[in-house]
Amino acid sequence: MPRPDTRTPGFRTPHVGTPHVGTPHVGTPHVGTPHVGTANGGPQELGTAGCETEDYETPGSRSRERERAREYGARRFGAPDAPQPAGADRLVQWLRHSPAQPLFRAHAARRLVVLAFRRVTDRHVFGAQLDRLCRVAVPVSLRALEQAVREGRPLPPRSVLITFDDADRGVLDHALPALTARGLPAVAFVVTELIGTDRPSWRQEAAFLLANGGHARAVTADGLAARLAQLATLPDPDRRRSLHELRVNSPVRPPRRERLTPEQLRRLTAAQVVIGNQTLGDADLRRCDDATVHAEIRTAHQALTEWLGAAPTAFAYPGGHHDPRAAGLLTDLGYPTAFVNDDRLSPRLPREPLRVSRLAVEAGCDGAQFEAVLSGLHPAVHRWRGV
Q1: Counts of helices then strands in the chain (DSSP H, E)
Q2: Cβ count near 129 (within 10 Å)
Q3: Residue 369 CB-density burial (10 A; 0-12 exposed, 13-18 middle, 19+ buried)
Q4: What does DSSP assign to residue 337?
Q5: Tens digit of pLDDT per residue, the chain (387 long)?
């Protein structure tokens, strides 16, 4: 019998129940998503965006996806080729077949899921994740979220918003084609001092310099990860001073990284990818004085307004950490929404629109791991374990 064409409007994917694994099976509601779109394939004013798939999934496509995931190193989720902490493999296997998965799916259906992607490097792997998302969720736009907040009306069940942190050329070269093929909207947060340059972010630069002989007086922890964490928690003047020390005494320079340009930001905006503010230099605002907090946000706000011809309306806290001084300034500047990275789900009508939760997800993780993140199970287990 031929497979159905998922690109036909109105196609609804049948629900596939989770197999019985040691406990009574807990069913979930039907999660197929019909194709919804406007005449031009764009998102609805409030609610859903279109989902067009390029190819129906086959065992061969799943195998190719796993190969790409291994190639691009889904380190956070236990890719076989990446070094993992003790017990990580067992955790990943448990997540794949957990009897708790249906319970988390049912809970996630009543919440808003905001995904925070970093470093999209393969449009096909990312596209496979979007296809899964379209089958089990309702993609929504930032405009729909803002309208829900403004009108006090919850978003539809199973709503998912796609976002990117520290957006670079990968969003334009790899993520945008996959989004456009499916008619999906997204939000890309940018660090404005990097726009039009070939510089790495300060975190990427520090990691490289520390791994290649760089040292700073204020960074004394044992191990690379611990030193990076220590650097990130320094008061902002000390962080900047330490980063300068690393640049001076490291024997090698970090590799360059191609960044987006103002013209490319406008191209993304025209293709349903909203550009958001991630400050001027991505400094942890909790470690900054009041003047620096204002400069980081206002300078980036002004630059984006000039480049895009309109003021940005979405903000991502650097490092994902909420700061009440920043929230007050965002209110003054007219931002309706701002996002943290706390690996949690949000209410479909966020109680704190300037503190909307997000789930961090690697663009290279495979399908089962992606669904565990989408349901909230994977981040919940990591919170319980203190990872």
Answers
A1: 15, 9
A2: 28
A3: buried
A4: E
A5: 444 444 434 333 334 344 343 433 434 334 333 333 333 333 333 445 666 533 333 344 444 434 443 333 333 323 333 344 445 446 555 655 667 667 767 777 788 999 999 889 999 999 999 999 999 899 999 999 999 999 999 999 999 999 999 999 999 999 999 999 999 999 999 999 999 999 999 999 999 999 999 999 999 999 999 999 999 999 999 999 999 999 999 999 999 988 999 999 999 999 999 999 999 999 999 999 999 999 999 999 999 999 999 999 999 999 999 999 999 999 999 999 999 999 899 999 999 999 999 999 887 787 777 877 877 776 666 666 554
Residues 6 or more apart whose Cβ sits within 8 Å of residue 365? 69, 74, 76, 77, 79, 129, 373
What letter represents residue 50's amino acid? G
d(CA 53, CA 178): 9
Tokens linked to 373: 């993140």
CA dist., res. 172 & res. 121, Å (int): 10
Region of residue 162 (phi > 0: left; psi between -120 and 50: alpha; otherwise: beta): beta
Distances (CA, A) of 96 to 59, 77, 369: 17, 11, 7
Tokens describing residue 227: 């030193």
pTM of the model: 0.75
